[in-house]
Specification:
single chain; 10 helices; alpha/beta; TIM Barrel; three-stranded parallel beta sheet
């Protein structure tokens, strides 16, 4: 019996390779909450700068931070967000942290958002006409498809934030197929691959990767705890795969 035959017989596994953790392959992050004090993300300027510095240290060259705009909780406006962004930029300059930072928003899809779209109100874009949108996690909004259609009529391209976290979508194969057929852009949270949210969320994220349906990656960074867990991403069996996937972050 040759050595090769023996190894085949005993089923010896190939040694697992653990790659160093880095975000330079992503180039740009387009989902985070780093403007202090305006949503559930960074609370102070000191916290905001610490998070940005840490992300920059992992290889990010650009950040498009996306504060929540939710009619009942976070009543942010383009003016509030732009003002906060300028304060962050000024502090980064003082701290000599050289990173390209911009701001858009993560819009909650409800009746009021649909009114904003239909009325032609300004929507903050990640890049060009790309607008980040989210829903609740449990129940499918009745106006989900109507809102996507209304956005498209106004010339916007919806980017669906963390679809792997929506329980209604995980359970509705027909809706999954409909959104994919309509070429709705999916943005997956990197933390989903670490099991940060749940095993079910992790599995659905992996399914979407295998189906090549991921357009964008995001850290969805809110605080230090998020980054602590993010730094375990290189232990994921999908880490090498996502580093080599053709995602659009590099085009931002």
């Amino acid at each position: 019996m040759t050595l090769l035959d023996y190894l085949r017989r005993v089923g010896k596994k190939k040694k697992e390779v653990i790659y160093p953790f880095t975000l330079d392959w992503m180039h740009a992050d387009m989902h985070s909450h780093l403007i202090p004090g305006i949503d559930d993300g960074a609370k102070t300027m000191e916290e905001s700068i610490a998070l940005i510095k840490r992300l920059h240290g992992h290889g990010l060259k650009k950040i498009v931070t996306t504060p929540h705009i939710m009619s009942e909780y976070y009543k942010n406006t383009p003016e509030i967000i732009r003002s906060g962004l300028e304060r962050v930029r000024e502090t980064l300059k003082e701290e000599q942290i050289d990173i390209d930072i911009h701001a858009a928003a993560e819009y909650y899809m409800d009746e009021i958002f649909l009114e904003k779209v239909n009325n032609g109100e300004e929507l903050l874009c990640i890049h060009d006409n790309l607008v980040l949108v989210e829903t609740g996690f449990i129940n499918k909004p009745q106006m989900l498809l109507e809102t996507f259609f209304a956005m498209e009529l106004k010339g916007y391209r919806p980017v669906f934030a963390h679809p792997e976290r929506y329980h209604y979508l995980i359970q509705d194969k027909a809706l999954q197929n409909e959104l994919m057929d309509r070429q709705i852009l999916f943005q997956i949270n990197l933390l989903s691959l670490t099991g940060f949210y749940s095993k079910q969320v992790k599995q659905f994220a992996e399914f979407l990767i295998d189906q090549e349906k991921v357009a964008f990656w995001g850290t969805d960074c809110h605080n230090e705890r998020y980054l602590d867990m993010l730094e375990t991403l290189n232990r994921s069996s999908y880490y090498e795969k996502i580093m080599n996937a053709p995602v659009r972050n590099r085009l931002l």
